[in-house]
Amino acid sequence: MKFYFIRHPETLANKKGLIYGSGDYEYTDKGREMFEAMPKILDAYKFDRIFTSPLGRAKKLAEAIGKHRNMPVTVDDRIREQHFGILEDVPYIDAHINHPEIVKRLFGDIDNYTVPGGESTNEVIARAADFLDEIKNDEGAVLIVTHSMFLHSAMSYILNIPRNDMWHFKIDPCMIVRIDYRNNFGVLKEMIPYEETDSMYIVSIENSEKLW
User: Fold this and answer.
1) Alpha-carbon distances, residue 43 vs 9, 13, 39, 47, 66 (angstroms)
2) CA separation (Å) from 78 to 47, 75, 141, 191?
3) Rg of the chain over CA atoms, in angstroms?
4) pTM of the model
5) Of 10, 13, 87, 205, which one is least surrounded by beta carbons within 10 A?
């Protein structure tokens, strides 16, 4: 199985530096640019199915890709972003100042800590594992439109990376992450920031076999 993960386009919450998961925000101007560009950029990739988080910032992009490819889109609640409880909609800076212990434990005590009113990172990893186990041994390729914390969790699981080490990956809006999985072993093949996709798209149209 080839997994193509994409984080949703940039939102106003991203630009404002907010912690958010369960809520939704509109795209920024850059986010709208990403939304318009990604369906065509993905012409360079072959995939058989599209899955998406139910949250609007991911679902809108998945539906646009599906419409462009004339493919159905499957919404799966397990792909949604982490719920950050009392930290929802709080600026990162304010959270570090006003809730330093909660922030420390949220990202450092993955196996045991649940943010008040929200989910633990361990619960997100369990959701990711449950979803991925259903399809990881299938043939073909899938596109999964999702969120930062879910994608970190999925990468930790499918690549068998220690949970506290998954923060070494920086996943920006509309980054494409490709993971190949075969014989119970996952390999990270590509992490492509949105800013690099335009030139890649041009090259891939000219010679897709050389690029992919």
Assistant:
1) 18, 29, 7, 10, 12
2) 20, 9, 19, 22
3) 17
4) 0.90
5) 205
Residue 58 burial (CB count, 10 A): 26
The C-alpha atoms of residue 147 and residue 80 are separated, in whole angstroms, by 7
49 to 1, 196, 207: CA distances (angstroms): 11, 24, 24
Are 113 and 120 contacting, i.e. CB atoms less than 8 angstroms apart? yes
Tokens for 68, please give them.
Answer: 């462009």
> Cβ distance 2 to 167 under 8 Å?
no
Q: Which CATH superfamily is domain 2-82+120-211 in?
A: Phosphoglycerate mutase-like (3.40.50.1240)
Q: What is the pLDDT of residues 57-94, one digit of tens each?
A: 999 999 999 999 999 999 999 999 999 999 999 999 99
Joined together, the tokens standing for residue 89 give 């909609």
Cα 154 to Cα 173: distance, rounded to the nearest angstrom: 16
Which pair of tokens denotes residue 25? 């925000």
Q: Which residues of the chain are under the pLDDT cut of 50?
A: 200-212
CA dist 175 to 27, 120, 148, 206, Å?
15, 24, 10, 22
